[in-house]
Amino acid sequence: MYDHIIEKVQALKPGRLTDEEVAAFIGEAQRKAAEDGCSGNDGIAIDDLLLYYVLSQMALFSGDLAEYGNYSLLYNNAAAAYRRKCFEASAPKGEKEYRNVW
Known about the structure:
Distance between the termini: 44 Å
Oligomer: single chain
Strand content: under 5%
Radius of gyration: 16 Å
Structural class: mainly alpha
Largest sheet: none
């Protein structure tokens, strides 16, 4: 299902993990995203979120803490954007929108 993400990971970090191990990390990231109340069927692309999660976990397990910090920051930003898109997608259509007037 996410073969293109596995290909990206293998291109960036060749030979470090098998495709099955990368797929396991992707499944873990999907479960974390689903905990936020947004399922993968909402039509919202989560490719960046999944990619950065896998890369951050690879860096953590290899002991490269600087790289882990960088990928974790990218993951957190992608997760925030994903949550925002989920919230916007779940908002009822036609209701009044509120704006900050300050």
